[in-house]
Design a protein that fits this description.
Blueprint (H helix, E strand, L loop, with lengths): L8 E5 L12 H9 L3 E7 L17 E6 L2 E6 L9 H21 L5 E5 L2 H15 L3 E5 L5 H5 L6 H17 L2 E4 L2 H9 L7 E3 L29 E6 L9 H11 L5 E6 L5 H11 L4 E4 L4 H9 L3 E5 L4 H4 L4 H9 L3 E4 L3 H9 L2 E3 L5 H33 L2 H26 L1
Parallel strand pairs: 1-2, 1-5, 2-4, 5-6, 6-7, 7-8, 9-10, 9-12, 10-11, 12-13, 13-14
Antiparallel strand pairs: 3-4
Helix pairs in contact: 2-3, 3-5, 7-13, 9-11, 11-13
Length: 423
């Protein structure tokens, strides 16, 4: 899709960018470029999640290169992603300062599109807007300050109050806000943001490029124990927010009566070693741990599982969001066991894509696992086919990109007219 009119000069401002694991990285920026926009990515030097600069990169004040056909400007930041709130804030602020400084001297763009972390980078863009009269769209993947408290990153109520005030400042002064769930949209409206200023664009999966439905049965690979004729796979981060002890409790209750059921936990996170120790100590023999795998390999593994698990703590924030693994699971074309309340559960129910249960309820989890196991291969494949069909119908990258382009077009002509008046 190419725009017939003159190209729009867009700065895509994001602290995390390819090769870092981030939802809207190179593919998103390339999609905008392929649509006819002149896109310049302004980001930091890659260091997430370890907090160390990736091999092949060297921190400097500014580095500009063409990466995969896009102009990418990398700016110096303080690299830190550990549990220290002070260090994380320092990392966010350093990018806000460096990006603000750069955007003051760069040729005035027609639009600044901001993605993650939404607050500090967004405030830098708002400051540039005030000085240079540039429209700003901010894309919010996390609802601040709610997510800070839930993740345990910030517990000081005064600091949370300050962040809340800054969020209000951001929401008032940006031109448009993109959110990834209906719950986020409603939360912002309740905080006084006009409804017409907010657009809902769901996240999408890391698509392989094939449009074929992939909900077919694969032979169990070596990473699944052959004695497990039904496998439930959790893939992703294992931390406090996932509350995976409930999953271990459910597995323990099933272990004695159903040796054919295997529960697999794949990925990394701060809770991995503790969970492994508990499995060993309690002798939970039907649980296996799989290591983190490269992103391009994840879909192949998801498709080989009998069903896929999403589990989060029972928390009001999680009822308002849709975990990104939801779309990845739908795209994989396998049944989903959704132990999350609210928006994510609504998606699975709407697509007829799985079973929804109350989070942190081991008994309900165990009963749902038995239902899926007893459904048989044919029943699970039918449910998986519905999951993939729903994804293809409503949640693809193309859907999300077209919706984003629609927002950009709202501001393009206004910005061009302002530039003509200035010059």
């Amino acid at each position: 899709m190419k725009n017939s009119e003159a190209s729009c000069d867009i700065v895509y401002l994001t602290q995390l960018y390819t090769p870092e694991p981030t939802f809207k990285g190179n593919r998103f920026a390339k999609g905008l470029s392929d649509a006819g926009y002149n896109v310049e990515v302004v980001t930091g030097f890659p260091n997430y999640p370890g907090g160390r600069i990736y091999d092949g990169y060297k921190m400097r004040a500014i580095r500009t290169r063409i990466e995969d056909g896009l102009k990418v400007v990398r700016l110096a930041t303080y690299p830190s992603h550990n549990r220290s709130a002070v260090r994380r804030i320092a990392s966010y602020l350093s990018f806000a300062i460096s990006s603000f400084s750069y955007l003051l001297i760069r040729r005035r763009p027609q639009l600044i599109y901001v993605f993650y972390p939404s607050l500090t980078a967004g405030l830098a863009a708002v400051a540039v807007k005030w000085i240079r009269r540039v429209p700003v769209v901010v894309d919010i993947p996390d609802l601040w300050p709610d997510s800070l408290g839930t993740a345990g990153m910030m517990r000081n109520t005064q600091m949370i109050g300050i962040v809340d005030w800054l969020c209000g400042l951001l929401y008032r002064h940006v031109d448009h806000i993109v959110v990834l769930s209906p719950g986020f949209r409603l939360a912002l409206i309740e905080r006084g943001v006009p409804a017409e200023k907010i657009s809902l664009i769901y996240a999408w999966a890391e698509e392989s490029g094939s449009s074929e439905n992939t909900s077919v049965t694969f032979p169990a690979p070596s990473l699944f124990d052959p004695k497990h004729t039904f496998t439930l796979l959790f893939a992703g981060n294992m931390g406090a927010m996932q509350r995976l002890d409930s999953v271990l409790d459910a597995a323990k209750s099933l272990a004695a009566e159903r040796s054919d059921i295997g529960i697999y936990l794949m990925g990394g996170g701060v809770d991995v070693e503790r969970l492994k120790a508990r499995v060993a100590e309690d002798g939970i023999g039907n649980v296996r741990f799989l290591p983190r795998v490269p992103l391009h390999e994840v879909q192949d593994i998801l498709r080989q599982a009998g069903a896929l698990l999403v589990h989060l703590a029972r928390d009001p924030l999680f009822a308002k969001t849709v975990p990104s693994k939801t779309q990845a699971y739908l795209y994989a074309g396998r049944p989903i066991l959704m132990a999350v309340e609210g928006n994510a559960a609504d998606l699975v129910a709407k697509g007829g894509a799985g079973i929804v249960v109350e989070p942190e309820n081991p008994q309900a989890l165990a009963e749902a696992i038995l239902r899926l196991a007893d459904m048989g291969v044919e029943g699970r494949d039918e449910m998986g086919a519905r999951a993939r069909a729903f994804y293809d119908r409503e949640l693809t990258f193309r859907h999300g990109l077209d919706a984003t382009i629609g927002i950009i077009e709202r501001f393009r002509r206004r910005s061009r007219d302002e530039i003509r008046r200035i010059t």
